[in-house]
Amino acid sequence: MNTFTLGLRNAFRNAVRSISIMFILGLSIGLCLVMLIADQAVKQKINDVKSAVGTTITIAPAGFNSFSDANNALTTSSVDKVKSLAHITNLAEVLADRLTTIGAAQPSFSRFGGDANTNAQTSLTSPVTLNTNGDNNGGIGSRIFVNGGGSLPANFSLPVPIVGTTDPTKLNSNDAILKSGAMLDGAKDSNDAMISTAMASKNNLGVGSTFTAYGQTLQVVGLFDTGNQGANSTVVVSLATLQRLTGQTGDITSAVATVDTLDNLSAATTAVKNMLGSSADVQSAQEEANNAVQPLENVASISLISLMGAVIAGGVIILLTMVMIVRERRREIGILKAIGASNSRVVLQFMSEALTLTVAGALIGVVIGVAGGNPVTNMLVSSSTTASLSSTAQTSSGGARFAGGGRFFGTRSVTGNFLQRSGNGLLNSASNVTTNIGWSILAYGLAASLLIAAIGSSFAGWMIARVKPYEVMRAE
Amino acid sequence: MIEVRDLTKTFQSGDTTVSAVRNVSFSVPEGKFVSIIGKSGSGKSTLLSLLGALDRPSKGSINIAGHDIAALGDRSLVDYRRKKIGFVFQSYNLIPNLTALENVMLPMSFNGLPSGSRLRRATELLDQVGITSDKQQRKPGKLSGGEQQRVAIARALANRPALILADEPTGNLDTETGKKIFDLLHKLSREQKTTIIVVTHDLSIAGRTDESFRLQDGKLVKAK
Asked: Which of A22-31, A41-50, A397-406 has the highest mean pLDDT?
């Protein structure tokens, strides 16, 4: 009988105790694997999010505040200078406003940085409908409060956002996929517009149909879909068109600059910040991504610490078990040495016993890891991102909030809501973590069990080496 | 030939130095059956553990087949125990989760003997000491005291040692069984020319060995 067989058999000498130890080790190794799965999934997601956000820089008015009607405006002339900077390959400028539906019960709106535009009306009805029951109405990611606890009017309709942009292919962070007609020319001042297929369906419109806005007739040149309800409720026109229609010549509400490579993003962001100074808040996509993945970074840290903790716990369990076993079998160790076993041989026998216990524990742990990896990861990510979303919502909650008899706080809230949605979209995207449980997990489980066995049996080995063979004679 | 010269073993017990064995000298010719008698605490077991290289002497030399084992390093001592010494203990000291056969095979596996040869020799030895084939597959807990001691003797003989050291081999057995075990050891000594040193306080056993020594307060005197 060789040393390993002897160790294997010894592991099952006390079946009840061995099985209990295996289950405890299984829990420990299972926790290791769960944390490893969570760590891998979260890190993969962090990389995906960071690589997916691209090489863009967002430029917004300085000190942007949703609660205030008075904000700094950006102008085309100031932002256009960014185009001249090195590594900037494209600059998309946006002016956003909101339209009320003619005849619908709606609050009044004020324009960006100015008074209410009484002309900001449209024949369109928003494709987004609200639950009008009670005073706590679910909307597009927001809660709506009506003063006095009343309910929304029956002919209530959500305002229709309108965006003037130099790049109609992008709607905030969403790609506008052309479904029919033609893509709008963002550089041309015309009464052409693009609407979503949802908006077209709601208003019985198609390519070539017309609708009114700001008292003018606009023609639908293309239908798009973004896959996002908020973005799909938006009318898209060229920047010059909206500036003309709103009388905000030269004003923009945000801009997105594209940098040639990720390596130049940081330097280009600094250059843009230096150029625009205090007139604009400049944030790179990478910074946005970093903010969005911050909760995931926290989850990764937690999972890594828990992983180490679980390995240490497993090691301590097997260490204490082996110390107990060595103390119990001190005399037997003396006998083995007396009949000719070397120290290394006895240590190897006890190590194989520890290994048997941990490998059996690892098998149980793999089952626990596979079963618990996904739910635990989701729970960790969910609790972490929920806290982050709640924090974001608290700092920019003015975007879609009724107050004072149902008045929206200015058009700025449109942009605010867009940005919030955009940020939350990234955060929501980051929170959709998919775990991947493959053969590598089995390999890691085995490696963890080897590590735990090595940690656990090292001290036992030292104790074994100290057992003197004459102790067997003393015990006689 | 075993030659022991001025063998001394002292222990430190708190502030007191205890001399378990004091300047013991004796020699045993090859193939002899020798007994060491003495009261409890006289140093019998200490002397046996020194002869078996389980412990190192404080002073003196133990010469077995021309080698002074007191001067051997740890690794050489393991080799010496494995190849030259067979132990028989009062409480048998068999490994409880191994069968009788596996217990006998164990020292041979330490010696690197192939499994087939181990099995053959273990079976042969167990047959020789009177353990029938059905009992060879039993674990020690399923054997009587006498049978366990027979297995222990077979285990001691496994690697064909030059010296068998038996510490009170009949101490846990009834008189009849004890006599049979003693007869077995005597027979093995005669047939296999193996030197056997038995530590006992049973004077009737001591009277039947080739030579007998008495250990008193760590000092050895020839009794027979």
From this structure: A22-31
Contact A472 B54 (CB under 8 A): yes
Cβ atoms A118, A107 nearer than 8 A: no
What's the pLDDT band for A134 if we cut at 50, 70, 90? very low
CB contact under 8 A, B83 and A340: yes
- Collect all residues with Cβ–Cβ distance below 8 Å to B183 and sequence separation of at least 6: none
Query: In angstroms, rounded to a whole number, what is the distance separating the alpha carbons of residues A309 and B51?
Result: 50
As given in the structure block, the two tokens for residue A91 are 């600059």
Query: Is residue B160 within 8 Å of B11, Cβ to Cβ?
Result: no
Looking at residue A217, its amino acid is T
Q: How confident is the model at residue B101 (pLDDT cuts 50, 70, 90)?
A: very high
Q: Using the 8-state DSSP alphabet, how is residue A367 labeled? A: H
Size of interface A-B (CB pairs under 8 A): 75
Q: Lowest-confidence range among A456-460, B34-38, B74-78, B220-224?
A: B220-224
Phi, then psi, of A474 in degrees rounded to 5: -65, -30
Cα–Cα distance, A279 to B16 (Å, whole number): 90
How far CA A366 is from CA of A31, A32, A333, A369, in Å, comes to 9, 9, 33, 5
Tally Cβ neighbours within 10 Å of residue A301. Answer: 12
Residues of B in contact with A6 (CB under 8 A): 98
Interval A268-320: pLDDT, tens: 999 999 988 888 888 887 777 777 778 888 888 888 888 888 888 888 888 88
A residues 275-304 near B, CB within 8 Å? none
- Give the DSSP letter string of A284-310: EHHHHHHHHHHHHHHHHHHHHHHHHHH
8-state DSSP, A444: H
The 3-state DSSP class for residue A43 equals helix
**pLDDT of amino acid A130:** 67
pLDDT exceeds cutoff 90 at A445: no
One-letter amino acid for residue A185 of the chain = D
Listing from the earlier edge strand, what are the strands of the sheet with B59-64?
A: B16-28, B2-13, B59-64, B67-68
Higher-scoring residue by pLDDT: B16, A149? B16
Q: What is the number of other CB atoms lying within 10 angstroms of the CB of residue A149?
A: 9
ipTM score over 0.90, yes or no: yes
Measure the CA–CA gap between B138 and B136, rounded to whole angstroms. Answer: 6
Phi, psi of A174, rounded to the nearest 5 degrees: -100, 140
CA distance B174 to B187: 20
Name the one residue in this structure whose structure tokens are 């003018």: A216
**Residues A445, A451, A455: CA angle, nearest 5 degrees:** 145
- The residue whose two tokens read 């056969």 is B101
Crossing angle between the packed helical segments B145-157 and B175-192, to the nearest 10 degrees: 20
Separation between Cα atoms, residue A377 and residue A394, nearest integer Å: 26
Residue type at A363 in one-letter notation = L
Question: CB of B32 within 8 A of CB of B195?
Answer: yes
Which one, of A42, A45, A55, A38, lies nearest residue A89 by Cα? A55
Residue matched to tokens 């085995």: A446
Determine whether A215 is exposed, middle or buried from the number of CB atoms within 10 Å of its CB (0-12, 13-18, 19+). Answer: exposed
CB atoms within 10 A of CB A48: 17
Average the pLDDT over B148-170 and give the result.
92
Residue B124 CA to its chain's centroid (Å): 20
Q: In B120-183, which ranges are E strands?
A: 163-167
Report pTM. 0.62
What is the rounded CA–CA span in Å between residue B129 and residue B195? 17
Residues of A in Cβ contact (< 8 Å) with B48: 473
For residue B76, give how far its alpha carbon lies from the nearest alpha carbon of chain A (Å). Answer: 10
